[in-house]
Design brief:
It is a single chain. The longest helix is centred in the N-terminal third of the chain and has 65 residues. A hairpin with a 4-residue loop joins β4 and β5. The chain has three helices and seven strands, in the order ααββαβββββ. The strands form two sheets. The protein has a four-stranded antiparallel sheet, with helices on both faces. The N and C termini lie far apart (about 90 Å). By secondary structure, the protein is of the alpha+beta class.
């Protein structure tokens, strides 16, 4: 009789422990699934903001340091009458500027590689009223990626008998935020004006294009 009761009690404890373990695993899996969804929603916006911030600061620093001037990048050729006949690119200066910008942007993205996303614990309930309540849970992610920079130009009409020749930088970025088991990626293209000049008269027929 004594051993029978003891075995029943032991069997009950095992069943309770098993039930607790199953519930714990179920809650943990639900928490993990919800956490991934919340982090993805948060990171979708945060990733581009962080990358854009790094690129903005890198481009601003290079342009401030080099003090880029239109005449350093583009040679303007005129006729005897003063009309612009052709434009040509100073390839050496353009390549130097492009290399400097690419290097600085890449360095800034590497230096800003740690990003911490903070999720309010109330967001795990799935209830809108509780979504911003409770202590925030920090999730650390690493910022990385690559960029392709190109320097282009275009002509824009600026009124009667005037044309603006604009030289600009295009940054094509593929960036990602990762932690050991999750990876979020996004791609975007952004432009920065480097310099410009106003051409008075007709647009030149000859232009050795940048690229």
């Amino acid at each position: 009789m004594y051993y029978s009761k003891k075995n029943k009690r032991k069997s009950l404890i095992i069943k309770l422990l098993t039930l607790f373990l199953v519930l714990f695993i179920a809650v943990f899996c639900l928490f993990e699934f919800k956490a991934r969804e919340l982090i993805r929603n948060l990171v979708d916006n945060e990733l581009e903001i962080q990358a854009m911030s790094s690129i903005d600061r890198a481009v601003s620093e290079v342009l401030d340091r080099l003090d880029v001037d239109y005449k350093e990048l583009i040679s303007v050729n005129t006729s005897d009458g003063g009309n612009v006949t052709s434009l040509s690119t100073n390839t050496t200066e353009v390549n130097k500027l492009k290399a400097e910008l690419s290097l600085q942007i890449t360095d800034y993205i590497k230096n800003d590689k740690k990003v911490t996303a903070r999720i309010p614990s109330g967001a795990f309930t799935g209830l809108v009223l509780l979504s911003d309540i409770g202590p925030k849970i920090p999730v650390s992610l690493s910022l990385g990626g690559s960029v392709i920079t190109t320097i282009n130009s275009d002509f824009v009409s600026a009124g009667i008998n005037q044309t603006v020749h604009r030289v600009y930088l295009t940054v094509d970025a593929d960036v990602s935020l990762t932690c050991p088991i999750i990876n979020y990626e996004c791609s975007f293209v952004t432009e920065y004006e480097l310099c410009q000049t106003v051409i008075v008269g007709s647009t030149p027929e000859v232009f050795a294009n940048i690229g």
